[in-house]
Amino acid sequence: MEKTQMAMLKLVLLGPPGAGKGTQAKSLSEELGLAHISTGDILRQAIQLDSALGKEAKHYVDKGELVPDGLVTKMVIERLKRPDAKRGFILDGFPRNIKQAEDLDSFFAQEGYSDYKVIYLDATEKTIIQRLGGRMICKKCQAVFHMTNMPPKEGSRCDFCKSELYQRQDDREETVKYRLSVYAQATKPVVEYYARQGRIMEFDADRESSVVLKEMLQGL
Ligand code: AMP
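# adenosine monophosphate complex -> structure
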C-alpha cells in the first residue's frame, strides 16, 4: 500500500487487557501518521483533571468496569469528528461491547467509512498477568514502562518528561482478574462480530512488541 493511502487508514484495535494495544497503537500511529484515539487514556486524563466526565467515569475505571456506553460512545464520536482523525485513525480500547460496535458502525456508515480494518491482538492469560503486574504509567505523558521488560532509566521517573510513574489502580491483581472476566463476557463477542464481517486481522501478541509491530505493518 502507498504511503498516502496508509495515512488514510481507519483501524480498530481489539484484544484483552495487557495484549499491548496501547503500545502497538502508539507505534502504528507514529509509523502511519494516524490519530491515536485511546478511550482509556482519555478517561484517565479526565479523571486526573477532575472534569465532569472524569467524575462520572472514576468509579467504573477504578473497579475495572465498563464506563456506560452513552458516555464513552459520545466521547469517541466527538473525537473522530476532529480534522486529524478525518485523515486516518486508530481506535484503541473501543468498542468494548456489541452495542458500542453497532453504534460505531452506524457512525461509520454515516461518514462513508466502509473500508475500516480490525486488528485483533491475542495473548494468553500468563502473558497478560505478567505484563499488567509490572506496568507503570507516566502521570503526565501517559508513557508506559514495565519494571522488568522495559524499566525506566531513573528509578520511577518517566524517561521522556521526567514526571512520576504510577501503577494504575486497575492493574492490581484482583482488578486484573475482574477486567479479564469483563473482557470475556462483553468484548470477546465483538471479535466474533467483526470476524463475521470478514474484517479481522489476527496477531499473536505473546511475542515481543517489535516482532508483532513488524508483522502488522506487513499485513496492512
Ligand atoms: P484501558 O486503558 O483500555 O485498559 O481502559 C481502562 C478502563 O477505562 C477500562 O477498564 C474501563 O473502565 C474504561 N474504558 C476504556 N474504554 C472503554 C470503553 N470502550 N467502554 C467502556 N469503558 C471503557
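# post-check
The two ends are 8 Å apart (CA to CA).
The chain has one domain: 3-128+186-219.
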